[in-house]
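ok so i was messing around last nite and threw this chain in just to see what happens. nothing serious, just curious
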Amino acid sequence: MFTIYGKSPARGFCDGLGRRDFLTVGGMMLGGLTLPQMLRAEALSSDGAVKPTRSHKAIINVFLPGGPPHLDMWDLKPDAPSEIRGEFSPIQTNVPGMEICELFPRLAKMADKFAIIRSLADCDGGHDAYQCMTGRKKGAQAPAGGQPAMGAWVSKVKGPANQAVPAHVSLMYKTGHAPWGDTGDGGYLGMAHAPFRLVGGQGNGMKSDSMVLNGITLDRLQDRHNLRQSLDVYRRETDNRGAMGGLDTFSQQAIGILTSSRMADALDLSKEDPAVLARYGVDDPGFERDGAPRMVRNFCIARRLVEAGARVVSMNFVRWDWHGPDGKNFVQARKDFPLLDQGLSSLIGDLHERGMDRDVSVVVWGEFGRTPKINNQAGRDHWPRVAAAVVAGGGMKTGQVIGATNKYAEHPTERPVNFQEVFATLYSKAGLNLSAVREFDLRGRPHYLVDPGVEPMRELV
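result:
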């Protein structure tokens, strides 16, 4: 339980309770009932059963830094020559005709709950998260103020679902190769919509310790907040970058977080059902060279953050760049494919068990695909001509494969898909109107969620 202590009066209230009894966050005493008890009482139907609740619209964006090998994961070619097909065999899923890598047995049993896009055709080709976070190519001319990340758009349009939890949250670890840990920012939408980062780099774990009050009462916290406001004499109308508005938002976020246990509880896996947590496996906090660590339970934390009120949660997972001198594409795959299988299948399963699958969309992808031909170091090189992605939840039409590639997975032969189409689909499923949402950059030029003419993927909506 997360408790904020206030000053006790000389005597208690008329019922004999002291002030500190009224300031127990997460268990607020109200006439002998805790707040959770009261909320549960309100949620009970006449027969005593808990009434179903509806989750808010949200997106979980899983970035696999380094370029995951599409040919070994989602688009295997068992009839190709050995130097192309590699070491893995496809297995049947619970959807007839839909096959994936043999190292994804858990996902194979629930293929009806996700869709595979095998024909992402407009990868930028850079080793960074930019396109997976913004939907745009990094090489394209950026608008004045910078390109907003997906989470910034959703934060701007929808606002927070709960004042104690920022709408845009990042579980992206800072990586040795910095662009693999970049969630993006608010761009021309302003600092207020930049991601709230919950994790750091090597040696820095989850920042949950900074979300509790230590040695300060609620009264002193409010005094300091009021003092900060009184000292703020900057003229906001001359602030053309939205910095002061952003600082106001950050201050409001801080007050909301510090005066509620909601965020801290979401990050506290000791509060999760042990049986559920066990499905996700065990974390390996060691960083994979210049990539992200194998924090498989972050899939669970992402779900818990959405339940707490986050609208967009982005996370990076492991390192998928396996083509250098120590490439060992298939050695690494045997280590990391099972972790992705366990984490992603547990997340998708949890969303369905909790009735969140209609509202919470999941996307899993990397910056590009990999060469069909295996190089002389047992790796696959960069291949931006085609890549693959997995999508789930959001009320999307799942249990299908979208697009196809030629016999060596070199390029799309059916239904080429671009990143903006995927973003349009995710925005639409998050409740954003593609034609109505318009914002202006710092030069006054109008911009939309996606480029004119881009529509949500008809196969999914």
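not much to say yet. The chain has 13 helices and 20 strands.
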